[in-house]
Amino acid sequence: MQTADFGAGDLDIWVLNLDEYGHPLWQYTYGGGADDLGYDIKPTGDGGFIAVGETRSFGHGESDALFRKLRSDGSVEWTKTCGGIADDQTFTVEPTADGGFTLHEKRILSARADKMVGY
After folding, report:
1. Which parts of the chain register pLDDT below 70?
2. How far is 51 from 87, CA to CA, in rounded Å?
3. Which of 2, 26, 66, 119 counts the highest number of beta carbons within 10 A?
4. Which range marks the domain in which residue 90 is found?
5. 115 is a domain residue
6. How many angstroms separate the CA atoms of 29 and 53, rounded?
7. CA 22 to CA 15: how far, in whole Å?
8. Is 0.85 surpassed by the pTM of this model?
9. Which residue pairs from 84-88 have beta carbons closer than 8 angstroms and sit at least 24 positions apart in sequence?
10. Which 3 state secondary structure label does DSSP give 11?
11. Do the domain assignments include residue 85?
12. Could you give the number of structural domains in the chain?
């Protein structure tokens, strides 16, 4: 889910939506000037997608957990980052029936750690 061939930074998240014949419907890269890695993406009840991973381009730690909600056409609905001063990554996401999400996050604790906020 990442590419170094095109996009804004060293590694960017690449999302490609294909039709039933394997033809591209749309594709986007998401990221900034540093590494941004995508680990999981799932469809949501509104026809869009939720993507998770980690970012070194945004947030305030070494790497921060990244949550990006996409509309059905791949455009960004919202982006959130969460993390402390060390490394934080989110590896899997599952949409819930009430429109929320459950997450599996890895946090490297440091002398100061922030609390995770649910979405």
Report:
1. 1-9, 61, 105-119
2. 18
3. 66
4. 2-107
5. no
6. 13
7. 14
8. no
9. 84/109, 84/110, 84/112, 84/113, 84/114, 85/60, 85/61, 85/110, 85/112, 85/113, 86/61, 86/62, 86/110, 86/113, 87/54, 87/61, 87/62, 87/63, 88/54, 88/61, 88/63, 88/64
10. coil
11. yes
12. 1
